[in-house]
Design goal:
Elements lengths: L1 H11 L20 H4 L13 H15 L4 H10 L14 H15 L3 H6 L7 E3 L3 E3 L10
Helix pairs in contact: 4-5
């Protein structure tokens, strides 16, 4: 009886992506912008003030030159429950949600494994076209 109830509860529980073993939290020996100035990356999209938008743009620009930005973005994509706010890998929460939706649509339930198999590369976000990567499998044209 107990196992039947447990299986039913597990089926009804919301689907929250867990940490993917092939996509570890990114680390680097060099000081990165998010570690030297973490407050800059705590962007909340509900704050529509000019100051908040400028800070988010500055954080995104810092990510552009970061050596672990691709790994950071991949980690943020598979750990949505831990990255609901802030700038991760040069993207906002809304950017990442659009990217996850596209990955789910293109690769189904296996999207996390597909992303993990891409090695150190991650989808590159562009405001105009959604996101593109050098690999055809991640090309999106919204």
């Amino acid at each position: 009886m107990r196992s039947t109830v447990h299986r039913r509860q597990r089926r009804l529980a919301p689907s929250i992506p867990e940490c993917h073993p092939a996509i570890p939290y990114p680390v680097d020996d060099q000081p990165t912008g998010c570690r030297t100035n973490p407050d800059l990356f705590l962007h909340d999209e509900r704050d529509t003030s000019r100051r908040s938008k400028e800070a988010a743009a500055q954080a995104v620009a810092e990510c552009a030159g970061c050596p672990i930005a691709a790994a950071c973005l991949k980690w943020a994509l598979v750990n949505s429950h831990m990255t609901q706010l802030g700038i991760w890998g040069g993207t906002t929460a809304a950017d990442r949600e659009r990217m996850r939706d596209d990955l789910r649509q293109r690769f189904g339930r296996d999207w996390m494994n597909t992303l993990a198999r891409q090695g150190s590369r991650a989808p590159e976000h562009t405001a105009a076209s959604g996101f593109v990567n050098h690999e055809a499998s991640f090309t999106s044209t919204q």
